[in-house]
Design goal:
single chain, alpha/beta, binds adenosine-5'-triphosphate
Length: 363
């Protein structure tokens, strides 16, 4: 898609906007193929998330010592931070097989009953996007988690009967980007909840070095630091940027990723020093240059960048807000002083005689 294009965006453009981006946190087709090879296999290898790792290590060791199945685990956090990877590590550490499914794939209670009844003893069931499961399936899950039993309803209407079905003990690992959306009865049935945080640049640097080793890519410390700084706190993005920089290094340099090579490569892909891409910068440029830094309404801002409201709100804004470059206020969107600096512009307060934004940032 072209963010300079003046043609109105189609609904398809809006839906594709997130997926098209090199800095999107969701997996694309290429990621899915490569990620399996890059996943850490045990807690030792898993970089960062010290608290979750330490707590989980205790939970798993204790379960192993008791010869029991591990407690159910809930992992919450943004996409690409390693929830699927951790669930596989849990299975590996418990020496158990793993079954992977997701909330949207379980629309009927019967779908869930079929999965649960075919689990082996001790198996790990990874349920991604658990907050998107249907209500009846969710209610069936309560009983399965607590009593390792489900009631299968046979027949319809007044003649329907519930046949109890015993399940082998299993470990449910639920993953969600929004722990707050889970109904309390479901949340309460997890023995352990781990909140995954965005990664610090030094941690991402370790992820990049590790992946470079697995991909047989030569990378200098400075090169890894350059990629880490643009990876938006997310290992999936770090790995993706690494692959694009590797291409550039092979074609335009001698294959070695130095700071300069990484910086030039990511310049070609329009990912700037802070990890903003073209859409992010289009939003900031419009906000700063057309609206003097705001406040401006979301719809107006979206029209100004030729995007759908939803694309600006859900795809661009969360990272801009997290980075402290944009704020959502009751009066509209405003740019923070850091946004002016980042885009190489002078905030109005500092412009000679400028009064445009004074007093607005606290709104
Ligand atoms: N702590 C980590 N150390 C090293 N690599 C990691 C780490 N966390 C994630 N990765 C890598 O990042 C990629 C994405 O991780 P993963 O699929 O586990 O994320 P996720 O949180 O499950 O994402 P989603 O919610 O979109 O499914 C994988 O290739 C994985 O190897």
């Amino acid at each position: 898609m072209n963010w300079d294009d003046t043609a109105p965006p189609t609904a398809e453009d809006a839906a594709g906007a997130a997926a098209d981006r090199l800095v999107a946190a969701d997996a694309d087709g290429e990621d899915t193929a490569v990620e399996a090879a890059l996943r850490p296999k045990d807690l030792e290898e898993f970089v960062g998330q010290e608290r979750v790792r330490e707590q989980l290590d205790l939970v798993l060791k204790a379960a192993r010592a008791r010869g029991a199945t591990a407690d159910h685990v809930l992992l919450s956090g943004a996409p690409g931070l390693g929830k699927t990877t951790l669930s596989m590590i849990i299975a590996a550490e418990m020496g158990a097989p793993i079954r992977i499914t997701s909330g949207p794939a379980i629309q009927h209670a019967g779908d869930l009953a079929a999965i649960l009844s075919s689990l082996q003893e001790g198996e790990v069931l990874f349920l991604d996007e658990i907050h998107r499961m249907s209500r009846p399936a969710e209610e069936m899950l309560y009983m399965a988690m607590e009593d390792f039993r489900v009631d299968v309803i046979v027949g319809k209407g007044p003649g329907a009967t519930a046949i109890p079905l015993e399940l082998p003990p299993f470990t449910l690992v639920g993953a969600t980007t929004r722990a707050g959306l889970l109904p309390p009865p479901l949340r309460d049935r997890f023995g352990f909840t781990g909140h995954m945080e965005f990664y610090a640049p030094a941690e991402l640097q370790r992820v990049i070095h590790r992946s470079a080793g697995l991909l047989d890519v030569v990378i200098e410390t400075e090169g890894a630091a350059e990629i880490a700084g643009r990876s938006r706190g997310t290992p999936r993005i770090a790995n993706r940027l690494l692959r694009r920089v590797r291409d550039y290094a092979q074609v335009k340099a001698d294959g070695v990723i130095t700071r300069e090579v990484a910086s030039q490569a990511l310049g070609v892909y329009e990912v700037d020093g802070r990890g903003l891409d073209r859409l992010d910068r289009a939003v900031l440029t419009a906000l700063l240059k057309l609206f003097g830094g705001g406040p401006v309404g979301l719809s107006t801002l979206a029209v100004a960048v030729g995007e759908e409201r939803e694309t600006v709100e859900e795809v661009a804004e969360p990272f801009l807000v997290r980075e402290g470059l944009l704020a959502r206020t009751p009066r509209g969107r405003i740019a923070t002083p850091a946004a002016w600096t980042h885009m190489g512009l002078v905030p109005p307060q500092q412009q000679a005689g400028g009064s445009g934004q004074q007093g607005l940032f606290g709104a």
